[in-house]
Each structure stands twice: as structure tokens, then as C-alpha cells.
Amino acid sequence: MDRTAQLTALRPESAAPARTPGPPAPPGPDGSAAASGSAVYDPAEAGALHRDAARVLAANWTGTSTVPSRGLYPHQWSWDSAFIAIGLRHLSPLRAQTELETLLGAQWADGRVPHIVFNPSVPLDAYFPSPDFWRSATAGRAVGAPRTVQTSGIVQPPVHALAVWLVHRADPRLSRARGFLSRAYPRLAAWHRYLLHRRDLGGGGLAAVVHPWEQGMDNSPCWDAPLSRVTPAPPRSFRRADLDHGAAEDRPTDLDYGRYVRLAADYRDRGYADGVGEFAVEDPAFNALLIASEHALARIAHELGATGTARHARAERLTAALVERLWDPAEGMFLCRDVRGGPIPERGVAGLVPLMLPTLPREIAARLAGTVRGPHFGLGTACRLVPSYDLTGAAFDPHRYWRGPAWFNTNWLLERGLRLHGEHGPADALRAALLDTAGTSGFAEYVDPYTGEGCGAPGFGWTAALTLDLLHRSPGRDARSVSRAGDGTFDMRDQGGDRG
Fold first, then answer.
1. How far apart are CA 315 and CA 409, in angstroms?
2. What distance in Å separates the CA atoms of residue 409 and residue 445, rounded to the nearest whole number?
3. Under 8 Å CB-to-CB from 230, ≥6 apart: which residues?
4. pTM more than 0.70
5. Distance in angstroms (rounded) separating the CA atoms of residues 493 and 480
6. Which of the 8 DSSP states describes residue 121?
7. What angle is formed at CA 186 by the lines to CA 182 and CA 190, rounded to 5 degrees?
8. What is the CA radius of gyration of the chain?
9. What is the mean pLDDT of residues 204-208?
10. Parallel, antiparallel, or unpaired for β 406-407 and 446-447?
11. Residue positions annotated with a catalytic role
């Protein structure tokens, strides 16, 4: 059987009759739940959707990593690879480990994990900004950019420790035999140190992003006010390769892009030094993912023989800082904070993502769940999936990138968060909508939140990967045991192929 056939074939356990989930298994000696005792995969739901998702990942595989899409995004992206690895672990734990190792292998000496790792075989004009724009090896020399691989100089949300832990749990024997965790841990620890020390630009303990691309939700209306301070680069100074693959009305405007280019060029020309730029924003989703990954890093440390207590404590301090600085009780959600200008009064999906944190105060979690279902995001009423921006906002557009369309990664995070906090009915409905929309949209990059119509690139990597992850989990599972186990990385029974 060739590699593509191996990846697209159903795992052997999928041929077995579906099992009825039993009660939650008791925690094991490390605090995680046992590998057996409840179903994680309902074969009746798999079929063509499972095979098609696996084929997307096989088609997007380069040999060492997975591109988000062959046309629009032909390199390796940081948070894409983390989400992709979470799905790949159900097909090939080895390939999932390789995905993350390739990304972490491009880490800079100051600890940052770059948002793009460039494939040298891809023509320079296939994507902009290209390696010759970022000039990482020269412009980033003072802060330790690698010399042997070309990267961008900015970062993306820190999902990586969470992904590393979940990939390890998919096949602990393979992970231990390869030294996967022992090699990943120091790189992840350095990555977190960079964010917690070099990026605490507001002085309140949270990490700040210095470019909209770092937060991942590139043209969110949340960035409009801080971006208005930035003088855009002249239109003739760059060529947008993204418009070769997507409709202009679905993409960021030329004005937005000019500001992105100016910010990136200024950061490059300062030698990628932090703390002196025009754009610095504390974002709730970025910091929630850092907190979840800090909890995961504690679990990794425990697996390697340390206690992990200090990391759990740090995650708790970060959670308290997140609530103190970004929670808005009047809005019932978290808001971004412009380090220069204070809270940003825009309702973006990033303000809902902290629902994924199990030790969030109960009343805040309840308010967030209500906001997800309320008029601004409309889950279960107006919308099939949670939109990226407030349905009632003046800037809402159901098709323009992060100004309204629904994205699979944010909805996957919210599905987990709803389930974690006991909202099983909405979580089950969201899971079903995600699976249905993934199939009908051709695993689209993003979709119209009302209709599920696909937008952006088809055959998108994280859409396919997170579809697989949802297929390998049973609906209605009790995630409350995560909080009882003191964990911040979702349900530790989520172990991929149950091969512990």
C-alpha cells in the first residue's frame, strides 16, 4: 500500500462496531484519564468524510510538513501546523510529530517560532511577502534567526505545546522511543519565555502581538483603530499574490495590506527588535492559547520527570491577568486592548476563545457561553457556525476574511470550550454543523456563517485536520473531568488512536 493509500484508509479500529461511550475513566497516575473505557471514534460517522479529509492532508504533505493549501499558502505556517498535527495524530502519529519538529527546527535563538517557514523549492513570486522581503538570516541575525532556513520574522498564536502534548498522547510508546517530548520541551519552554518576557509590552503580564498577522485573524475589525496610526506602504511597492487565488471582495483591502506591509518592513528594518513599533495589542485568543499551552507544557514536564507545578501556577496567574485586563462584564466577553489606547470596543471571535480554559471563573464561562448563543454571534439561531465578527457590527461582512466568515479552527476551539463547561447540547450541535459544513464546502478555508458556503481556498489543511479530530471524538462526552484533574489542555482522554 502506498503512503497516500495508507493515510486515506480508515484506521483498523474503525472496522469494529460502534461502541456506546461509558462513564469517564478514572484519572491515571499522572492525572490524565486512562486510555481505555470510552469510545473516542464513532465509525458510523466516518466513511467518505474521513477518507476525503485524509486525502486533503496527504495532498498537502510536502515530505516534512503540511501546507495550508497548495495554491494560496504554499509554505509551512506556524499555527496551521499545530492544528494540522492535532488531526494528523489520528492518521499517523509519526507524521504529526514530524510536522511539529519541522516547525520547531526553524526556531530563532531568542525563542520565537516564526509564522512562516519557507520552502526553498517554491518560486519567490508564488507568495508575498516572500523570503527576500523578510531577509530573516540577515535582518534577524542579532536576535538569532537561523542561517540554514528562511523564515518570516513575526510569530503566530502559541498552540504548539498543546499540539505536542496531544500528539504524544496519540502514541506514547512511539513518542518515548523517538525522544519526541524531550527534544520538543526545551524549544517550547524557550518559545514561552520569549512571549512572556519579550512581548509583555503592556506591563500587565500578557503577551502582545506586534502585527495583525501574528494574532492570525489578519483583517479583523478589532485591528482597525490601532492600524489607523500606520502609514501604508505605497501600492506599487508590493504585489499581492493572494489575489491570484482568491476573490478581491473576500480578501483584505489594498489599504489594509499596505499597512501590513509597512508594519512588517519597519519591524524587519529594526532587526526584529520588540517594543518600539506602532502596533501592540493584547489579544484574548492569543493569550488563551498561551495559557492552554502553558498547562500542556506542565503536563509535558511531568511526563519527563518534573513536577510541572510552577507552570500550572504561571498559567493560573496568566488567567487572572487575562480576566483583569481584557474581560468586559458589560459585553459578556473579552476585548482586545491596544497597549497605546486601551480597550478596543469591537466584538471579535477572539473574545470568546478563552472559553477553552477550564479554570476560568464559572460566572465568566457562563456569560461567554451565553454570548456565543446570543444576537452578536448567533450560534444555534442565526448562524450554522460562529462568525469571526459581531453579526450586528457595522464592519460585518459574511465573506470578507476575518470580518464575518466562520473559521473551522475557532469553532473547534469553541466546541471544546462549550463542552468543557457543561454546554453539551450547543457543543454537540456545533460539532454536527462543523462536520456537515466541512464536507459540503470541500474543506474550505472559511465559510459564510449563515449558509456554510465555502470561501477562500478549498482543501484547506486545518479544516481537514480538525474534521478528523471531531470524527475521532464521540459527541456528548463529559469534559468536566479535565478541571478535576487540574488540567488546562482539554480532555486528556483525547489520545488519538488509543494506543497508550
1. 22
2. 10
3. 259, 262, 263, 278, 279
4. yes
5. 12
6. T
7. 160
8. 21
9. 97
10. antiparallel
11. 218, 445
